[in-house]
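for the recovery benchmark. tokens below, seq after
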């Protein structure tokens, strides 16, 4: 584990909350924090054996799930809303096929991911992008694009947010 800044795990939005926050690192897993990153209560972050998770400043609110079998990179200044799921794996093999179980995920700088969105394996999200609430992202998202839907599609280009 390499922390080049501050990592806060289990940050409570409601001070009375007793929701458990889980964080696990497998054997030879790499976890790097650059800058300040806050992880909300009830989140579940799992980095499996030999996998790598890099978080470059930002936050995720309550109930976020990050499942890392290979490599997930989250850029600087990202805002990840409640109950978002980010996975670089299907976690199961499909036999007798050319199915790829695990592919890296890369989320650019200053990306906003709305409530209950799901980012699937093999996806790259460009800088400044916005993922609408409830979207399932199965393909790359260009820089400064707003995507939404199931599966997510480009709704608007050249978006800016703060």
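predicted aa per position
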């Amino acid at each position: 584990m390499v922390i080049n800044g501050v990592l806060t795990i289990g940050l409570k939005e409601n001070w009375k909350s007793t929701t458990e926050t889980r964080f696990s690192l497998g054997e030879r897993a790499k976890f790097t924090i650059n800058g300040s990153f806050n992880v909300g209560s009830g989140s579940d972050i799992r980095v499996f054996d030999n996998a790598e998770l890099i978080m470059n400043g930002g936050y995720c609110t309550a109930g976020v799930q990050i499942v890392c079998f290979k490599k997930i990179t989250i850029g600087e200044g990202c805002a990840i809303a409640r109950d978002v799921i980010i996975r670089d794996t299907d976690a199961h093999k499909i036999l007798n096929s050319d199915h790829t179980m695990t592919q890296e995920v890369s989320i650019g700088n200053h990306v906003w991911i709305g409530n209950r969105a799901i980012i699937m394996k093999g996806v790259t999200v460009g800088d400044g992008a916005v993922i609408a609430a409830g979207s399932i992202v199965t393909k790359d998202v260009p820089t400064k694009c707003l995507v939404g839907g199931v599966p997510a599609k480009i709704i608007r280009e050249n978006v800016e947010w703060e």
